[in-house]
Amino acid sequence: MTGKRIQQRGLWFDEFEEGAVYLHAPGRTVTEADNVFFTTLTMNTQSLHLDAAWSAEQPFGQRLMNSMFTLSTMVGASVAQLTQGTIVANLGFTEVNFPHPLYHGDTMYSESEVLEKRLSKSRPGQGIISLRHTAKNQEGVVVAVATRSVMVWTEENAP
């Protein structure tokens, strides 16, 4: 085959624009199986995620998706578009909020806003991007927000 070869990748530092909002597709419909598997895999035996009878008597009236699943899925939805193959390291989170529950059967849609970017002072050829990830359910209700910093390569210095 002699056709052009294109490898999917995220953005180099130089391609990020402050204020840009990236909409990530596809959305992700979350299931009971996702919740039970993630919850037990991570040893989080919170009844709010596993016990339907107990959860029915709690304020939300049903089991909630594990918030760490929600966070992981929201950030994970950004990888192909923003950091696949261009990341050096995830540096951390400064804010994580879950203003509304995510339930079994909800569909989560994620987006990421570039808040700030700067070249690293200590690591030439790399830059730090500050992102605000937001996830909404199928009704447009915000279910999660997280601000994180990630280090990425500049295109000129990428390995």
UniProtKB/TrEMBL annotation:
<dbReference type="InterPro" id="IPR052342">
    <property type="entry name" value="MCH/BMMD"/>
</dbReference>
<comment type="similarity">
    <text>Belongs to the enoyl-CoA hydratase/isomerase family.</text>
</comment>
<protein>
    <submittedName>
        <fullName>Acyl dehydratase</fullName>
    </submittedName>
</protein>
<feature type="domain" description="MaoC-like">
    <location>
        <begin position="19"/>
        <end position="134"/>
    </location>
</feature>
<dbReference type="InterPro" id="IPR029069">
    <property type="entry name" value="HotDog_dom_sf"/>
</dbReference>
<dbReference type="Pfam" id="PF01575">
    <property type="entry name" value="MaoC_dehydratas"/>
</dbReference>
<dbReference type="InterPro" id="IPR002539">
    <property type="entry name" value="MaoC-like_dom"/>
</dbReference>
